[in-house]
Amino acid sequence: MRTDILLGNPAAYRKLLDHLTRTAAPSSGHDLGGMSVDVEYYLGEDRLLTGFELQVRPPRGHAPASEPLIQASAAWSLKGKGLELSQRAAFLEWVWTQRLCYSYADAHVISATPEAHVQLDAVTQIDADDFFVTLHVDVAP
Fold it and tell me: What Rg do the C-alpha atoms of the chain give, in angstroms?
């Protein structure tokens, strides 16, 4: 499926994701639970989204790059549908960069599918030689 990149740096995202899945441990236990609570609070409680669902996949060993530790899905509310595509992407990027990602390292890509889904793929690491979290968010039109 073809996607259009709206925001972020795909090369930087892929490079950090590949590096962390080879060299660091995925988040688990209370740390992963804490991030999932934050995702639900900052995205699931926002008035721009509706029908928010969250799935947490505790890691077994190192998490494959193709399987995010946290997956979320939602649809745009009536208020969200009133935004331009670029504003929807900016909202997801703002929540990621200002509310969710760790300050040590992060990379993300926000894309749009031909069906007008807006998707956030992100990875962040809490500190050098410490755990990482991967996130995929899909917001339907």
Answer: 14
Are 110 and 119 in contact by the 8 Å Cβ rule? The answer is yes
Distance CA 137, CA 42 (A): 12
Q: Which residue intervals of 1-141 are DSSP H helices? A: 10-23, 29-39, 78-81, 85-95
pLDDT tens-digit map of 95-119: 999 999 999 999 999 999 988 899 9
95 vs 72: CA distance, rounded Å: 13
SS3 assignment, position 8: strand
How far apart, in whole angstroms, are the C-alpha atoms of residue 81 and residue 105?
Answer: 32
Contact 118/43 with Cβ under 8 angstroms? no
Cα gap 111→4, rounded to integer Å: 5
Contacts of residue 89, Cβ cutoff 8 Å, sequence gap at least 6: 6, 7, 110, 112, 118
DSSP designation for 75: E
Strand partners, 107: 123
pTM: 0.93
Distance from C-alpha of 26 to C-alpha of 58, rounded to nearest angstrom: 9
